[in-house]
Structures are given as C-alpha cells and as structure tokens.
C-alpha cells in the first residue's frame, strides 16, 4: 500500500473552457472581452474571458451588470452540445492514458499518479499529457501537481492561464502561507468575512490558529479549514466510470395504454431523479427510457445530451425518447427513466437562455423539496386531484421563495 506522503495528484483544468471553445470556432474573438450566456438583460453570465474579467466581470453575474461594466463586450449564447462533445473528447484522452482519474466537472480532472516516479517521473508524464491534450483538442489547459487534491487545485489556479506548477512534497504549507484565505477551496465570501473580522487574512495566520478555537468559531468546518490551511488533504481520487447512473422505474398495478397517465408518470420520474442529480451536484450526459409491454417484451432507447440537470430540459428529451420508443401500441406494464454519464457540475452552466428568475425558481423549488420532501412540490401535469389525496396545508413561510 502506498503511504500517504508518496501520493502524486495532478489537477487538470481547461482554461475558460466555454470561452476557449468559442474562440476555437471563431478566431476573431481571441483577445477580446467575451461573455458566454443569455443575450437578454435579465440573463446571467455563464463564463467570461480573462479580458472581460479585467472589468470586474465574473460568472453568475447578471448580464445587465456585466454590460454596464464593459459595454463593448461580445456576447455568445453558448452551445452546450459542443461543450459536452469537447469535454468527452478530452475525457477519452485522459481515460486512455491515466492509471486512475476522477472527472470532477465538465472541465476539471484529478489524476492519481502515485508510484509513477519509479518509472516515468510524475512531472514529466503530466507535462507530456498536457501537451498531447492541447495538440489533440486545440484548447488551453493548466495543471497543478502536488501530494493531494486540495493543494494541486490551488496550484492549478496559480498556474493559469495555460500553465503548469509542481508543489514538491513538504512544501505545501510554504506554498499556501502567503495567500489570502479565499484561495482555499470552498472558502466563500461569508466564511472569509468571518475570518477577517477575527484578524485572519492569510492562510499562514489561519494555519496558526489553534484547531480547537477554529472549531469553536465554525464547528466541524473549522477543523476542515485548519487542515486545508496546513496543506493536509487525504481525500482520494474517486475513479470515474461512465456507467454510473441514477434511475427509477414504475410497474403499474394494471397494464395500461392511457397516454395521459403514462406522460404523467414520465414527468413524476424525471422530476424525481433530476432533483437527485441537483442534490448530488451532478449533471447527466445521457438519458435512457425503458418500456415493458404486457407480453413482457422490454425495449430501451437512449440519447446523448448536453450536460444538464434541469427539469424542463430533461423532460423534453425523455418525452422525445418515449415517443420514438412506444411503437407497438400494446398495453404497457412498466416504464423507467435513467440518467447516466454523470459528472460533477452546477446546473446553472446549462441555462444560457434562462433568466435570473428561472435560476431563482430552481433554487426555490429545491429549497422547498429539501425542507418538506420531494413530493411536496410537483408539476401540475402530475398532480393528484384534490378528491383523490389530501395534501398538507402549505406553510405560510414558503411563499417568499417564489417572489422574483
């Protein structure tokens, strides 16, 4: 068994992935302030170029605000199908060469290269892989190489744009020490503000705060922060398997050909597992629909899609698959829906044409489902009539979540 201190973890990150793909399609966009997102004033910025960032623009910013900061910015609506295709191409390159890898998002990968120093040299091997990815894809990519995932990710951020950086074993604390606390992954604005109010501004200062005091300030999160500030992270690289999936199916008490009922079941099942995707902060790149007829013949059909976990996008594809699949006009005994080719990611990246209201609506729906149960809120097409089921009286405090 390889000792922890001998680990070699590389973190690869495609630089401004959506922007880079757009520039690859149109050379005239290179070197210009480019925004990827919806074109309406109420849309949000899904991604922006480094040139746009100089004006203070960042992802998830309202497009209207971004255009006030940089009126001459160029907007592209985004093409998730193309981005997903490029992501899969790079995944295949890494899968063919890496001994163990984790696809942590549509544009990020962790590689466990532990033990390779005995044969090739981890830095040499990783450098050659980076060159090959850029040669094959035509896209810029950066990497950080360190003894754990957290330090390698920070190293990648420091290596950008289009660079590489190795942090040798034993140098983790020195590397992190001068950085502001916000550089630690998962330290957001609120946590950083709490730390700064207590005089903790750099990672070095944070590493010197007694762990018991940090725990008193922030609970278990304080212990995690102390470990990260000291360059400690023993989280494993989780092997990535395309066959990982989330699925559900329903066998009916009586075989049916009632299309309204079947469509209602598709809505219910799609909503259910789309919510599970968002709970796990994952996106799906493949949908499968299954039908079992009254004579027990079972058929399935699937399609690859741009990565998503949004109900309205997934439901459209599920219905499309069902329409193509249901061709025997026999009574149906069972239907099922499965999402596979899962990657980590936030559903907002697929909402290029959606407004802030749509994003807020998804957040409100998930908040209510988390609080009261996933079946408390559902689409009207799948709702059970009042005379068939008694629903609890909606709490008075849920309505503010729907104010846009």
Under CATH, the topology of the largest domain is which?
A: Alpha-Beta Plaits
Average pLDDT for all residues = 85
Cα-atom Rg, whole angstroms? 24 Å
CATH architecture label name of the largest domain: 2-Layer Sandwich
| Largest sheet, spatial ordering of strands | 5-6-1-7-8
**Terminal Cα separation, in Å?**
54 Å
Name the helicity range.
25-40%
Sheet bearing the most strands, described? 5 strands, mixed
Rough outline: globular
Keywords:
3 domains; disordered C terminus; 404 residues; Alpha-Beta Plaits; Dna Ligase, domain 1; alpha+beta; DNA polymerase, domain 1; 13 strands; globular; 39% helix
Describe the overall structure:
By secondary structure, this protein is an alpha+beta fold. The protein has three domains: 1-169, Alpha-Beta Plaits (2-Layer Sandwich); 171-238, Orthogonal Bundle (DNA polymerase, domain 1); 245-402, DNA polymerase, Y-family, little finger domain (Dna Ligase, domain 1). Helices cover 39% and strands 20% of the residues. It contains 14 helices and 13 strands. The strands form three sheets. The chain has a five-stranded mixed β-sheet with strand order 5-6-1-7-8. A hairpin with a 7-residue loop joins strand 2 and strand 3 (45-48). The chain is globular.
